[in-house]
Amino acid sequence: MSRRRLPRPSRRQFLAGTAAVGVAATGGAAWMLTDDPKDFIVAMIRRSVPYVEFEPGAIEEFAASYYDKVQVQRRGNIEKISKMARGIGMPLTETVLDGNEKYENFRRTTVSTFLIGTDFFDETRDTTKPVAYFGINPCGRNPFAEFA
Amino acid sequence: MQFIQPDQTAGPWDLVVVGSGFGALFFLHSYLQRHPDKKVLMLEWGRHNTTDWQLEQFQNSDIPPLTTFTNESPKSWNFTIGLGGGTNCWSGMTPRMHPNDFRLKSLYGRGMDWPISYDDLMEDYDWAERIMLISGPDDMGKMFPGAGNYPQKPHRMSAPDRLLKAASPDVFFSAPCAKLSEAVEGRSACCSNGSCSLCPTKAKFYGIDNMTFVFDNPAVQICTGARVRYIDAAGDTAKAVVFESGGRSYTVPAELVVLGANGIHAPFILQQSGITDGAPGAYIGEKMLALVEIFLDGLEHFDGGTSTTAVDLRYVDGPHRAEGGANLYWSENSFQWSGLRLEPPNRFREVLPVAITVEDELLADNAVVDTGGDLPKVVHAGFSDYAMQGLQRAIDKVPEVFAALPIEDVQFRRIEPTTDHLQGSLRMGTDKATSVVDPGQVHHRVRNLVVVGTSVFPTTSWANPSLTCAAMSLRLGRTM
Q1: Which residues have a Cβ under 8 Å from the Cβ of A94 and sit 6 or more positions away?
Q2: pLDDT interval class at A18 (50, 70, 90)
């Protein structure tokens, strides 16, 4: 088994390193944040997996249903971060929140929930096509699970 | 289930049971086998929220716990107010306590000894595991005498788990749990969702679905929406239970009162009753739950068959308990804890979330307090230095414990606000001055008042308390 010892890049370093990739993958589009907090969720997902091409509207559909289900208190937190992002932009917002456990947990669990609602992890999918979103399943959310 | 209205509760009753969680259900199960003719009234503050309702509403109860007490504490507390109590919101993990957990004071000079031993509970541990259809490994007896005779086979371990098991076969095990590895009638197998407080397949043991033999027992009548306010005691005898429902007060005479409310409301009921012997409410606490992540180099995780697949038990006991709390490591197979790994790209599964439970020391100044209002107040200073020291040691030992894995990095993530394990507020003991109930869980002075549930635990242990609570309640019911 490989025992490579690689320094783990911080999220800040990683974002700096992939910024160009993100722009390239989206054709240079700038993400416009409106006062709708769901736009922030969309932008957060795009910036977390900038190297993945999703079907048009897939992330937006997820963000709408996800935001609908989150607890009221968490919604308030999303609105606060969204407001900050509108003011200072996504890159600086992520820099400010780098190392913030609550935000990092929110980002990773949200992005993970989205990805497992898509065919991204389906080894049989046609990789020449954009990743499709199917919805948040109430059951079987671990596509890697194997049973005895 | 035989539900009755508040105005039908006049009695007389042989038993009035306050609450309907682990303590009440397992007690009644064994008690009614010996006393099938007793008339029982179960008073439950909450409603009967079916498991389907819970899934649809995305909550265990329509009564948020935080609305039922005031919290003067840096930490949070959680429980379910509703039929079935904690059997609804629990995660279904069922380790036994270690034999030395019952002798913490005499062995390590901390906390207090339990007035019962592991041996006293062995038979009932086994019984509780059979009732809940626990899934677990057959070699668990290496750590817990008599354990390993589980009714369901263990869940599949993940790839990292299997390496760890091979490296440490005597301390690393499949995690015992009340989530089925094989479907039975009425309960599906676990789908490894990670949303165990709201189990979508009903693989997890729920009292309201899986102890219907108690709820449906002809001896048992159930009144929901009944908030018990106090026990009417005259001298050394409990005479009646007084509850509120719909803005009215009802008095129910009882021969025997079984107090099985949670660790915040059970002591508050005694305080409001003027039954303050042994300082009910003092010593409330719970163990700590923290999360670290092990970033792996080239090894993928999350291929286990349930949400928490394995446990490392090497530090659940030992001389380190004199200085800091014992701890257990849980191998978490769910990415509900902290998500998949997102950086660097395409290494989504190269991370192992490890939950760490650490015992805390129960201190007298941490207490449920009756301030004269309608709700109890919890005054708690947060996790003690004993727990923090235990956590620090547990984190320091991660590279050693998980040395069989290709570790790239270890990151501490957080301490969870609560483990949902309220303990210690009506502790059991032999000394009337420092405990509320005796070794038989009978109130030291009011001899027809019995307390069930985790509030009687004298120490937190590192172990999830539900199985031990169930075993203690079975024992109590069969010996009373």
Answers
A1: A11, A12, A15, A47
A2: very low
* CA B253 and chain centroid, separation: 30
Cα–Cα dist B380/B383, whole Å: 8
Question: Which A residues, 49 through 108, put their C-beta within 8 Å of a C-beta on chain B?
Answer: 49, 51, 69, 101, 105, 107-108
How many helices (H) and strands (E) in chain B?
12, 16
Is domain B6-479 in CATH 3.40.50.1440, yes or no?
Answer: no
Q: What is the pLDDT of residue A139?
A: 85
3-state secondary structure of B177: strand
- Tens of pLDDT, residues A65-107: 998 887 777 888 899 999 999 999 999 999 999 989 999 999 9
Interhelix angle A72-88/A90-97, nearest 10 degrees = 120
The residues, any chain, with a CB within 8 Å of residue B358's CB and separated by 6 or more, are B287, B288, B289, B290, B324, B325, B326, B327, B387, B390, B391, B394, B462
Positions of E strands within B182-284: 220-224, 227-234, 237-245, 248-259
Asked if residue B285 lies in contact with residue B423, where contact means CB atoms within 8 angstroms, the answer is yes
Q: For residue A31, what pLDDT band results from cuts at 50, 70 and 90?
A: low
pLDDT at A29 over 70: no
Q: Which residue has the tokens 């002809």?
A: B218
Cα separation of A32 and A14, whole Å? 22
What ranges do the domains of chain A cover?
Answer: 58-135
The conformation of residue A122, written as its DSSP 8-state character, comes to -
CB-CB under 8 Å, A111 with B342:
yes
Distance CA B135, CA B154 (A): 5
**Summary mean pLDDT of chain B:** 97
Residues pairing with B358 in the sheet: B288, B327
Pick A2's closest partner by Cβ from B194, B339, B406.
Answer: B406
End-to-end alpha carbon distance in chain A: 25
